[in-house]
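Narrative of activities, Objective 1.

The group set out to show that a structural description can be obtained from nothing but a protein's sequence at a throughput compatible with the screening campaign. Below is one input-output pair from the validation batch, recorded exactly as produced.
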Amino acid sequence: MIFAASALGQVAFGGTSAGASVDFLELSATIACALDIGGNLSIANAPIGISYFPPTVDTPSNLFIAANNKSALTTTALTTSDLLLTVADATGWPGSGVVTLDLALAAARTATSSEIVYYIGRSGNVLTLQDRGEAGTTAKAWPVGSSAEMRNTAEHHNLLASSIISLQTVAETKANVTDVDTALDTKADAVDVAAIQAELDGAVGAGALVRQTAVDPSGGGDLYYAADHGITPANADNTAALQALIDSITALERNAVIIFEEEGPYIFAGPVQDIMRSNCIIQFPSVTILSKQFCISLRGGAGRVPFSPSSYSAMPLMAGTKIKCTTNTGSPQLTRPAFIGGIGVVGELNDNTFVIVGFENIIFLMPPNPVLTCLNLEYFTNTFFKDCAVIAGNSQNILDKPEPTTSTSFGVVQPRASSGINQRVEGVLNIMGFYNAIRVGEGAMINDLGIWASINGIVYDTSFGCSRIFRVISGWNKTVINVIGLHPMIIDELDSERWVDPAWYTFVCDVNDPNNFATGEIRFRTVVPYVGHVPGLFTVVGGANLYYRETGVAPA
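Output recorded for this entry:
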């Protein structure tokens, strides 16, 4: 069953009644969504200025995003076919919308002097137009200095009215029919999906129709499938495609989940951008404290991430979605260079950004002996992980991990300044092969943490809020905990396995706190390879303000 939207914003069903026929070439010109093999619908790449409800939910973009008092003069001339419109200043203009082009001199304007255009993207002061001569107007040539304004238009009003009527119609149907999908199926008169898909593929190109950007049933927000946006394991570099998708989501200011469906690896080889500030390859947006906060999370679609490291035999990478950064050059500027990161507006509460970022069911891969930090969340006030692994190298094997030599490199850096207790790790987070495995952030709540083959396993820096880790397992780390700033903390259970044979990861100490910065308590258990639990081995440098208790040993 295929649905198309007419030019007037009314929903048209691509079904046929008995004996009727469909002109598929005409249908392909207005088709905006279709059922894929999984029964999903899509408006991800559909034209704007059309309502697609029902059967799928409209977005702010396709119904037009409006803004008050937005006008500017053009700075380049336009022919009747140009699709790039450059204005003097588009600050504050939304990512898409309706623009009326007209003569700069108001007194010279007439009823037919203007041209209406829809723009579908904005980069700085350059607007990308969907087409020319929209809403019944005629494409014209425009000189430099022409007027470009976001005016109210009849087309926008009629589109919203049509959407409301469609919603009311479905609501009325819902009152009489238990299953709206059944009603829609009946309306479509049992159209042959495969036949229509084949016809459309021939008309507009195979693969032109994509699945719906739907709502995540688990509550994550709008769903975006990576493959629908050109992000695939077949690409030599997915940097530009993922950054463009994140930027598009940012313009909508809605909660969103990006699904990486395959095991991958998805390769990211792009250079570090915004070197003097965010200093990262993939940059999450800057959101001020006065702006609408929203969440963007990356989720692996290949199932939960298993993890079981070894130093005894070669081990391939485990099953699960893999996101791989191949870049291994960068230098510290305002912040440490990173694969994924971001920073807030200058002067905005220590340059923090108030977008929420999350990572679920993903194996992040970095080059051996990494120069970059994998996930630098230094300037984010809210973050979360659920069942992820961050690995330097291409295996779970300790033996193939070279000694890390870049002291600014971390697997994960949590925020130093939290907006409440919002640094969460659900499930398990495993980190392997970095100079520093993780810097625990202010107010962090970590369920289960595995730190492996690092110079420093956990780094505690200055924090006003108390962090808590319910369980840590440490293996093949020189120093398990390194305290470099005042930090209140609790670790409910630390299983510390020390490696005593000669190697770069030969054990040095459990807690290194020479300035007695840490306050709080640690419950621990010390383990020796091939032996098991050996009481009384816990080693502390400084740490005078910490309370220690050994599991399985009666208090003194």
